[in-house]
Automatic annotation (TrEMBL):
Residues 45-443 form the Nitrogenase/oxidoreductase component domain. This is Nitrogenase iron-molybdenum cofactor biosynthesis protein NifE. Pathway: Cofactor biosynthesis; Fe-Mo cofactor biosynthesis. Transmembrane segments: none annotated. InterPro entries: Nase/OxRdtase_comp1, Nase_comp1_CS, NifE, NifE-like. Keywords: Nitrogen fixation. The gene is nifE. This protein may play a role in the biosynthesis of the prosthetic group of nitrogenase (FeMo cofactor). It comes from the Bacteria. It comes from Mesorhizobium shangrilense. Belongs to the NifD/NifK/NifE/NifN family. Gene3D superfamilies: Nitrogenase MoFe cofactor biosynthesis protein NifE, C-terminal (3.40.50.12380), Nitrogenase molybdenum iron protein domain (3.40.50.1980). NCBIfam families: nifE.
Amino acid sequence: MSSLSAKIQDVFNEPACERNRGKDAKARKEGCSKPLTPGAAAGGCAFDGAKIVLQPITDVAHLVHAPLACEGNSWDNRGAASSGATLWRTSFTTDLTELDVVMGQGERKLFKAIREIKEAYAPPAIFVYSTCVTALIGDDIEAVCKRAGEKFGLAVVPVNAPGLAGSKNLGNKLAAEALLDHVIGTVEPDDAGPYDINILGEFNLSGEFWMVKPLLDRLGIRVRACIPGDARYLDVASAHRARAAMLVCSTALINLARKMEERWDIPFFEGSFYGITDTSEALRNIAELLVRKGADPEILNRTQTLIAVEEAIAWRKLEAYRRRLQGKRVLLNTGGVKSWSIVHALMEIGMEIVGTSVKKSTVEDKERINQILKDDNHMFEQMAARDLYAMLSEHKADIMLSGGRTQFIALKAKTPWLDINQERQHPYAGYDGIVELVRQIDLAIHNPIWSQVREPAPWDCQPAVVDEPPGTKSETATLHTVQEFTATMADDFGEC
């Protein structure tokens, strides 16, 4: 665990993090993001974060060295999509039992599992994940992986990110360290060119990367590696020969982008493919970085021409929704790059942002929100469920965009809701993606069900007041009220 502790310290001493700049040496040791204590890893543990980053590498076998429950909890928990190999969707685990732990059979069982995967599937690589149990009993997965790699002649990559190490975000960074230590730079491509780029932190959720790749193809720009969305092992292993990189989610993989720049001189910028303006700006930045690294400056003109054409098409499609959504109020309960990129995208079509969560956002993300909204009162670090419910039930927002965990708050408040996190069913990146996002928002807000569920239930209505002589019973009035209600229901819905 000593090597793991050193790796964690290195990860959180991140020079590229804005919060860490300007600190003295003592303060910098605290890191740019304080990890949660074990047992308080809200939103996922370090193992979960590592699996999220690496599992979308599609032709690799992902072997979890743990009891069965660890793999069952983390398997395929995001909506990443693949265009080719499906091995990544096969669940592999050593399934340690109490007897294995007591008898010290963990490392032997791991070696056997690696051999079985090699013989049955012959993958280009096997990623081996440590977990809380195997870290606590002291299994040396690095030694086992090294021995298995020599024995079987394939890459066996140890991912030392047990859940007890900290939060999901820490696991993201430890997965990036595993790629830097064991994968990237291990294969020399024979087709490197001046228009090769890497996209870092793009997970291809619901196929979003496929909304952007055709734009790059039209510019003659090749994505050497998209890490991790729809990636292949050899692409990631040769990613060090790209000329430039775009970082989509800095809070997850900023250490990967910085160290690739230091080791292989691959300049990077942080951008977003959400919204028309941000997509155009990302394409311009990619072209400018490539020119800076020796590409033909003519690509700048081609990029500008493509942007003009695509923006005109997108704005023309959005006009049909602008009139219906102008002035509608949106509450964003998300984080990271979406906390500012979605804000900008929705404001472009005239929607009003009443609040956006910044729980998982970096200092740079928060600064962008300030520049866009001109008011930090719209940012909240964390909002309790009761506060979210109160805000929505008081009709301070017309729709909430969030992940699946808070959808029931919106539904209980009888407020439209749309999923924009990893479980979503529609891609929202690129020019076509923002049109789809706006279309889904329009469908959610103007769904006729909301006007119906907000009406009082028939049994909550006050019964009709019937004048009766003093001293008479109310059975007649009650019967009269029931008959009227029955007749009304029959008119609305027809006789049974």
